[in-house]
């Protein structure tokens, strides 16, 4: 990445293009490794990594048919209203 930063200071368009492509390839490899790791963790948790669903076909952490939430997450549904510094609504 530092080589690309230096190349950007100059006028060699071909060098900039080559270094940009190398950076893209490195980025793709990092993303691939991250997604592979996420897929393995999801598989261990009973999730379908490709579709982001649990084994029952629902979204991860979604309420089941019984109406109870899975996993015991402390989720709060709330509304937000913007106000200025004096507490007046906008």
In short:
This protein has 90 residues and is mostly helical. It contains two helices and two strands.
Which key features would you list for this structure?
two-stranded antiparallel ribbon; single chain; 2 strands; flat; 43% helix; mainly alpha; 90 residues
Fold blueprint:
Blueprint: H1 2-8, H2 13-44, E1 47-48, E2 53-54
Antiparallel strand pairs: 1-2
Helix pairs in contact: 1-2
Folded structure, characterized:
Helix 1 packs antiparallel against helix 2. Strands 1-2 form a two-stranded antiparallel sheet. It has 90 residues and is mainly alpha-helical. The radius of gyration is 23 Å and the shape is flat. The chain has 2 helices and 2 strands. The longest helix has 32 residues. About 9% of the residues have low confidence. It has a domain of 48 residues.
Order of helices and strands: HHEE
Regions with little confidence, pLDDT below 50 for 5+ residues: 62-69
Strand adjacency order, main sheet: 1-2
- Helix content class: 40-55%
- Tell me, rounded to a whole number, the average pLDDT: 74
Q: Treating each run of at least 4 consecutive H or I residues as one helix, how many helices?
A: 2
Number of strands: 2
Major beta-sheet overview: 2 strands, antiparallel
Q: Please report which band the strand proportion falls in: under 5%, 5-15%, 15-25%, 25-35%, 35-45% or over 45%.
A: under 5%
């Amino acid at each position: 990445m530092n080589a690309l930063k230096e190349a950007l200071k100059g006028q060699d368009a071909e060098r900039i293009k080559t270094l940009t492509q190398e950076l893209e390839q490195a980025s793709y490899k990092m993303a691939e490794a991250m997604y592979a790791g996420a897929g393995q963790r999801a598989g261990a948790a009973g999730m379908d990594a490709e579709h982001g669903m649990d084994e029952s076909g629902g979204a991860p952490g979604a309420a089941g048919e019984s109406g109870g939430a899975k996993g015991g997450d402390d989720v709060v549904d709330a509304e937000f209203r913007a106000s200025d510094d004096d507490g007046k609504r906008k």
